[in-house]
Structures are given as C-alpha cells and as structure tokens.
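Reviewers of the previous submission asked for a worked example of the structure-prediction workflow described in the proposal, so we include one complete record here. The input consisted solely of the amino acid sequence. No template or homolog information was supplied to the procedure at any stage.
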Amino acid sequence: MAYFAGVKVQELPTSIVPPVRVSNPIVAIGTSQQVPNPNEPKLVYNFEEYQATFGYTGDYNVHTLDEVADVAFKLYKVAPVVFISIGTDATDTVNTFTSTNLINAISQWIDQIFFLFRMVPGTLIIPKGSQDPSVAIAMASNMEVISSLFQGMAIADIPDTQDPTAVANYKNTNNLVDDNLILTYPSVEFDGKTYNLSTHVACMQARLDAQNDGIPYKLASNQTIKAVKAKYTLTLDQANNIRGNGIVTVLNFIGGLRSWGDRTSAYPASTDPVQAQIVIKRMTNWLRERLIRTYWQFVDQELSERLLKTIRDSVQSDLNGLKGRGIIIDGRVEVLPQENPLPDLIDGLLRFHIYWTPSPAVREIDFLVEFDPNAATQVFRALQ
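From that input alone, the workflow returned the following structure tokens.
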C-alpha cells in the first residue's frame, strides 16, 4: 500500500434497508372493439388511453373489456389496469371468446406481466368468461405462482342462472375451491347496464389499496357498491348463507347496496386464516412480494454476520413500522439455528423465520344486554 498521510472517508452499506413499495394492478382479459398491434398486454392509466388503444362501444356482451374500463376509470377511478384482448368479438358468429382462448391467454401472459411492467398482477378478472368453471380454475391456478415467485388473486363470477339457494352446491360441484380464488354472485346493475360483480369487487379492492399506500389490509366487504340493484334481492339470511359458503355477494340492508363477504373460495373446506380469509391471504401475498423485491439485492453477496444483521434488522424495522401504523397486530423475525444448518450455510442458503399477525376482519359483533333490577331502587331513593 502506498504511503498516505491525511484523512480518508470510507462509505459503508446502510445497516437498515428501506422496503420496496408494492403496486399490484388489476389484470383484465377479454374482447375489445379493436386489437392493439402488437397484441400484447397494455398498461392503461385512463379511459382516453383505453379508447385509443382498444376502441369502445359500451356493449359489454360483445366487447367485455369495455366493462372493466368503465368500472375502473369512471366509477371507482382506479389505475393502472393491464388489459389483454383476445379478439374483437364475443358473439357466437365470430367465436373468439371461448374458454380455450381465454385459458391460453392466461397461460401466455400472466407470467410475462412483471417482466413487461415491473408490476406483479394483484387481481385477475375475466368478465363474462370467468362464469365458465374451467376458466375460473385456470385463473386461480395461474395466480398461485406468478413469474416463479409471486402470488395474486383471481375473482370469478357464479352465473346468474343459478338460484341463490343453489350457488353453494354449484361451487362445490364445479370444484371452485381455491385459496387464490374469490367467487362473486350475483351481477349488479347501474345506469341501465348489467355488470359482473367481480369487476366491481376488483376495482373496489384496488381503490382501498390505493388509499392505504398499496397495502391490502382493508377488506372490500361492507363497502358501498357503485350500483343501484342486484340481479337478486337477498335477505340477510340468504346473503349470510352465500357468504358462509365462501362466496362474496351483495346486501341491501344498512347503508345501501354493499359488498358482503370476507372469505376465499377455499372456505369452509379450509378454515386456516391464511387460506380462508381474503384480507390475510392478500396481506400474505403482499408481504411475499415486498420481501422478494427488497432483499433480491443481497443475492450473491458474501455471507457475513453484517449481512445477516442487516437483513434481520431491516425486516424487523419494517414489521415494527407496520405494527405502529395499526396495519398488523404484531410481527417479528428470527434467525433460528435449527433452520440454518451448517451444510446449508456453506451452500449459501439463509433462512429468516417471520412470525406475523395481520389483522383479521371482524365478522360478528355481539352485545350482551341484561336487565338490571337493582337499578330500579334508585327511583325510590330519589323520593327520600
């Protein structure tokens, strides 16, 4: 080393790493008036951009993506949305809107969205098409593993042809049971048009997420639907029966027409909170992406005590912040010796064990009211 006299400064890596902010757009697959060239997923931020790229007729039965554009950009004002067109028509004569074409589009594009836009698909919807059980199952399957690492949710509709008393049986008969799948029923109406409930629920979720820094700890249930009525007017008992079978529905009870349901389609077959409760499932998906994207930068760095402490302390700091903001109940991270045996360390494998508790949604509030006869004696005391 050359001789030196003076003062030097050496820059060291920051001991606490700030987390990456997560943004999870809605992905919608369907038909449109015109198909972009090249025909690939398009990230769209407003209605004018959608119309310039895909055209617009407002006929949701023929051009199914128009429904998503209207609901997202006009009613709930959420953006961006990833649109994928499989053709220009959904009528029987042209017949581009088939389950085969939809499933092929799901398989072809879902894994590519992150590499195209650096965004992980948060919610997949296919208005009208998701009423086909084979499409709904494919949606859930592809959202289970996205780009080899991430997870998202699919929202699919149960057809209006099913009577409210038959939807639970329809769900089970068609094997629509998956923790990556939210089922919705029935359709809703607004301004003379019929909408798939899945489109409204997806956009309502996106709006709540956007209002909370992209963190999906608020449940899109008991929230006002931007519609005037549903296909079926459900009583509280009917709505609760549908809800209790892992299906999101609507209820016109207190506060107008509202979404009603907090469980994935895995419920009631599974009661594991991570699988059954929508808010905890979505929070777990969110945490997965946050960890992967934040700590990917440390892959291929040399194993050291400093690296272990940096990752551990950064994760703990993030969990503390989430707890302090009331987003989670509690959270901690540990590096357990039994989960990090010497052969794995030599092979470059590190394991951090995170214990955390996202807040579950309140399902029932009970007030126990009891008549207190002793208080009646106060009347006579007042006369003395």
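The chain has a mean pLDDT of 94. We consider this example representative of the routine output the project will generate in years two and three.
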